[in-house]
């Protein structure tokens, strides 16, 4: 019903079929497109609302607005740049240079018009952002002209049966999307430079994708980040490079570094999509459909036409293992930042070494993807970043380790070219991405790149119209419990409702006789990485009230206040000391001091014939264990202690039960992510309830830090 309602709000007038060979008919379509575009760019033909987090100011990109209650999705931005209008137009028409999802653009016909303008018929293919839905293509008319006030306009719209005009190429494996009147209005400024108005308005046929993915195709905010804002960012980048304001590290020119970032993105998109016309074909699975394996036996895929394939006589092709999954309550920016900074938490050093060895003429044998790999330290060497800091490129040096003569290949340092984008947590609707490819020490401009990586896209619930509002209100009531209904705007932004889709793709070269071995290794490795990422996601998800836990551990709930008082009172009874120092003995004050205490304080259950499980930790305790209040309850006490710690606790346990407490010496414990944590000393004590019965066991780890 909602879809029908939207179509009634935006009726498309049926036009008589225009003669495909008649320039006058195409000019009529072009003039209509121009009028509709201008009414969106400078008027209210679309119901625009300012995008949250994009307030105008001296450091802002410009004024960004997104659509509300219209067919398809739309975004608009207005900004000032220090380039002349003709230069701006030239850059914007080169869509593949700034629109990372553009696979190819073919101008099939050019018709000159008055005012030195042109009408172009364009076929464009775009990449799909995930492995879960087909890619989109567009068949459009683009009109470039000048207005009487000296402004330049480039406007564009899809040619359909309702607009008339020639029929475009058949969509084959693509889903045909529609571009509604969109474009660029470029006005010259008196002192030089230009004011740009950009409008993007498209209908991505969201009904053809799985329901869980529809928010990706119905989000004006995602469109704004990927196309509208990206275009303005790119022009500003070129403007600053042209004026010499940007200083790059090393001897690389900005244009060369920009080419590297485009090649990394394009290679990753090629891997995620695996188009048959690029040479990709599906490889049989092992019966479990969680990881897809595709292979490409074209030597140009990896080596490029400029490389002599005789250098790699046994080169069999490129293999890609990829998977997509849904994540709950993890901000995309936070996850990608963690994956970048803590590579050792998910990467296997042996597999990295295999990828690096593929750059050599004779790669060594396929390793077993050893779970956890080798503990390797990484050094990040900054290379370049864009003007707005929304994207940066770096070289990562992985320091080599050889533990035996047969591991001599692992003794060399390895280098990875890495591109990271979207890790600003305030950028609404931004896709966060980490893409990387092994390089050798020479790092030549034309070096072959085989990118792998992660992409995390927020699934922003579409909240257009009353039906969607009611659904979100209902969802928020179910999520939090009775009496907690929030306004829709708040429900949209609350991390409790945050869902995102994660896409992982890893590429490897293989020698002909080792194809099946590499496929098995790649499948096992991607499954291992998926497991690691899920653990990371659980650990870094913001601590929150879950529906299973009720309210018993939420700070300021009566149960939490009572537990805090029991913990502190029992500590005082048994040790004679004060755990927290508060003027008031009210539960609120005690809980606040306990929650914010710099030492890690945690409680665990003590049941007969069962391993002690954690039930509560303060913020420092959650940080030390690298977990959340929700995930905490799955962690057992004996899993966080090393062997020495377990022995000491066993020897002191009877003392704790009899005397009520024990001091434990300095030691090491292990976080849920497997990282060692040192502490100066610890205290364990019994926690008594109001009836002086034993409730649980509490620990405080003093002056802890990651090793």
From TrEMBL:
Record protein name field: Homeobox-leucine zipper protein ATHB-14 isoform X3
Highest taxon listed in the record's lineage = Eukaryota
Q: Could you tell me which residue ranges the START domain spans? A: 19-220
Keywords, ordered alphabetically? Differentiation, DNA-binding, Homeobox, Nucleus, Transcription, Transcription regulation
Compositionally biased region (Low complexity): 1-17
Concerning InterPro entries, the annotation shows: HD-Zip_III, MEKHLA, START-like_dom_sf, START_lipid-bd_dom
SMART domains for the chain = START
> What would you give as a GO molecular function for this chain, any one?
DNA binding
Which residue ranges does the record annotate as region Disordered? 1-21
What Gene3D superfamilies does the entry give? Answer: 3.30.530.20
Q: Which residues cross the membrane?
A: none
The species this protein was found in = Ziziphus jujuba
């Amino acid at each position: 019903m909602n879809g029908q309602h939207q179509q009634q709000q935006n009726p498309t007038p049926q036009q008589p079929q225009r003669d495909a060979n008649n320039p006058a008919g195409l000019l009529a379509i072009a003039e209509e497109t121009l009028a509709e575009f201008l009414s969106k760019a400078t008027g209210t033909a679309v119901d625009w609302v300012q995008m949250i987090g994009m307030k105008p100011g001296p450091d802002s990109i410009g004024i960004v607005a997104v659509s509300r209650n219209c067919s398809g999705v739309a975004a608009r931005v207005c900004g000032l740049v220090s380039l002349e209008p003709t230069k701006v137009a030239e850059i914007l028409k080169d869509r593949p240079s700034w629109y990372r999802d553009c696979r190819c653009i073919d101008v099939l016909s050019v018709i000159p018009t008055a005012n030195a303008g042109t009408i172009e018929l364009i076929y464009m293919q775009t990449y799909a952002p995930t492995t879960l839905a087909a890619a989109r293509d567009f068949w459009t008319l683009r009109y470039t002209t000048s207005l009487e006030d000296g402004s330049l306009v480039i406007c564009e719209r899809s040619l359909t049966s309702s607009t008339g005009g020639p029929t475009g190429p058949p969509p084959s494996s693509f889903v045909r999307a529609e571009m509604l009147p969109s474009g660029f209005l470029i006005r010259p400024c008196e002192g030089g430079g230009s004011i740009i108005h950009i409008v993007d308005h498209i209908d991505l046929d969201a009904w053809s994708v799985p329901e869980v993915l529809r928010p990706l195709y119905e989000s004006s905010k995602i469109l704004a980040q990927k196309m509208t804002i990206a275009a303005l960012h790119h022009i500003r980048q070129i403007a600053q490079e042209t004026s010499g304001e940007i200083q790059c590290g090393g001897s690389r020119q900005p244009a060369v570094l920009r080419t590297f970032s485009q090649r990394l993105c394009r290679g990753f998109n090629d891997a995620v999509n695996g188009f048959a016309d690029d040479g990709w074909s599906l490889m049989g699975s092992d019966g479990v459909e969680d990881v897809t394996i595709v292979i490409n036996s074209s030597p140009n895929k990896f080596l490029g036409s400029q490389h002599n394939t005789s250098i790699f006589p046994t080169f069999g092709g490129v293999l890609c293992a990829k998977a997509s999954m849904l994540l709950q309550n993890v901000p995309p920016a936070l996850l990608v930042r963690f994956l970048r900074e803590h590579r050792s938490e998910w990467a296997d050093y042996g597999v990295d070494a295999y990828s690096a060895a593929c750059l050599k003429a004779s790669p060594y044998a396929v390793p077993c993807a050893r779970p956890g790999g080798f503990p390797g330290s990484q050094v990040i060497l900054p290379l370049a970043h864009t003007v707005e800091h929304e994207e940066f490129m770096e070289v990562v040096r992985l320091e080599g380790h050889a533990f035996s003569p047969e591991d001599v290949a692992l003794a060399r340092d390895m280098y990875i070219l890495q591109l990271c984008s979207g890790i600003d947590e305030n950028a609404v609707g931004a896709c966060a991405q980490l893409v990387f490819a092994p390089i050798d020490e020479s790092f030549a401009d034309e070096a072959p790149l085989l990118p792998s990586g992660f992409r995390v896209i927020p699934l922003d619930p579409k909240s257009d119209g009353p039906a969607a509002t009611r659904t979100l209100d209902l969802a928020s009531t179910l999520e939090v419990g009775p009496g907690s209904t929030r306004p829709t705007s708040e429900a949209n932004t609350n991390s409790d409702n945050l869902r995102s889709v994660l896409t992982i793709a890893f590429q490897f070269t293989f020698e002909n006789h080792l194809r099946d071995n590499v496929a098995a290794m790649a499948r096992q490795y991607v499954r291992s990485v998926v497991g690691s990422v899920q653990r990371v996601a659980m650990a870094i998800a913001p601590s929150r009230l879950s529906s299973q836990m009720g309210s018993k551990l939420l700070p300021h709930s009566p149960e939490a206040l009572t537990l805090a008082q029991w913990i502190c009172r029992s500590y005082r009874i048994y040790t004679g000391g004060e755990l927290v120092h508060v003027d008031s003995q009210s539960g609120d004050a005690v809980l606040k001091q306990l929650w914010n205490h710099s030492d890690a304080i945690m409680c665990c259950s003590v049941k007969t014939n069962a391993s002690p499980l954690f039930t509560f930790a303060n913020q420092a305790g959650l940080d030390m264990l690298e977990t959340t209040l929700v995930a905490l309850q799955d962690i057992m006490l004996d899993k966080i202690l090393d062997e020495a710690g377990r022995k000491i606790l066993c020897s002191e346990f009877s003392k704790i039960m009899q005397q009520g407490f024990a001091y434990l010496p300095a030691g090491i414990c292990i976080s849920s992510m497997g990282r060692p944590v040192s502490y100066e000393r610890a205290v364990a004590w019994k926690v008594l309830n109001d009836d002086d019965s034993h409730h649980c066991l509490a620990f405080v780890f003093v002056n802890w830090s990651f090793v």
